[in-house]
Give the backbone structure.
Amino acid sequence: MIDLRALREDPDRFRASQRARGESESLVDDLLAADQQRRAAVSRFEVLRAEQKQLGKRVAKAQGEERQLLLARTKELAQQVKAAELAGTQAEAALRAAQLAVSNLVEDGVVAGGEDDFVVLREVGERPDLREPRDHLELGELLGAIDTERGAKVSGARFYFLTGQGALLQLALLQLAVQQAVEVGFTPVIPPVLVRPETMEGTGFLGAHASEVYHLPADDLYLVGTSEVAMAGYHANEVLDLSGPKRYAGWSSCFRREAGSYGKDVRGIIRVHQFDKVEMFSYCRPEQAAEEHLRLLAWEEEMLAKVELPYRVIDIAAGDLGSSAARKYDCEAWLPSQGRYREVTSTSNCTTFQSRRLNIRYRDESGKPQMAATLNGTLATTRWIVAILENHQQPDGSVRVPKALQPLVGREVLEPVRR
RNA sequence: GGAGGGUUCGCCUAGUGGCCGAUGGCGGCGGUCUUGAAAACCGCUAGGGCGGGGAACCGUCCUCGUGGGUUCGAAUCCCACACCCUCCGCCA
């Protein structure tokens, strides 16, 4: 939900933002119109209501005939008040709808365009020199680490078992991520993965992403696609002390329907219905958000360095941001089997867009509550296993464990096993 | 699944139709007193929208779980729903 006051002051910024996203500029004008109408309707109601209150006080004091006279007048007024109130309520609803339709204001510096128009900020690390790289699934099967066949048998397509060394690797990876987060001051959190509709709604995932989300109709609960949902809802309707950023590292399983992705990444565990993730989540003051965003990115890169993956950082184009992000940086790890980079982290600055829906505030110097900014970023996920296996594979099918993971995995090399 | 209780301004609490945006206590903040502190006493202490002002502030409307209804008028009466809690059953 965008800032109406900012919109009134400078509608052209919002029009430009919509244009950069490839979204309709007229939504901005619809919103302005709805805002006007709501103001008019509300002030009409307020005038009538004030009058009604005044009269009511006189009725309370009046006696006999005078009272009867006043009652007659005030009855008539009550009808008008009711009508004006209804008009006001409708105008409010229309305004909200118009407000939800406009995406977040894009940060300055974000390039216009769509999915393929990102800007590469840097490439880091050395790509392995592999003559005939095995892909992660082949490696995973050799190692007895990934079992997609039984995943399909038990749960269907896009489900898998991580077994043996695979399970150890994931636990180690996520544990390393949590350790890093805790070292720099994050509060580790294991959140619920089922959330109420208003929480899902508040984080914006029931909009364009609605078909991506698992819903349990018997209980009207949603399975989170990321712990961002639970972590954003965590401080909903609260006024926070944000003298410094509040940082949480949420570890959860994530669930995604992957509707409409038939045929994409069907092999292996790149795109699955369930995976685990350690997610950073920050609440801070809006003026600190851009800086915090870069910090989250730096921590992501630190993790990638620890597991010794070659990657590049891209600055996502406006049209590919999603409605709540003002800016988004992805880190993409090199996948030898595909000869290209694939997303392994994503960090978004949602400015006050999410807070406005979830009513998350802080007190500024004058003690007034203001909307907080929210940011999130991936610290490690199941998908990283794909990149780790492929980049650290050796000709015999074994996989070297990155140094930082060795103590946590309990070995230096993952060895093929007999099946 | 069944039965009951509850939801009021940070916390607790009063409030059964108009003088209630709402009592009292705790906590917090400020002041008096004090070398300092405590105690005592005094004052302030929800949020939001709109309008005015440089600002402190002032005016006004909205908000007593949510939505509807009754009424000239609702925290208060009626209906529905949500959430929380307790007990019983069931499952682990």
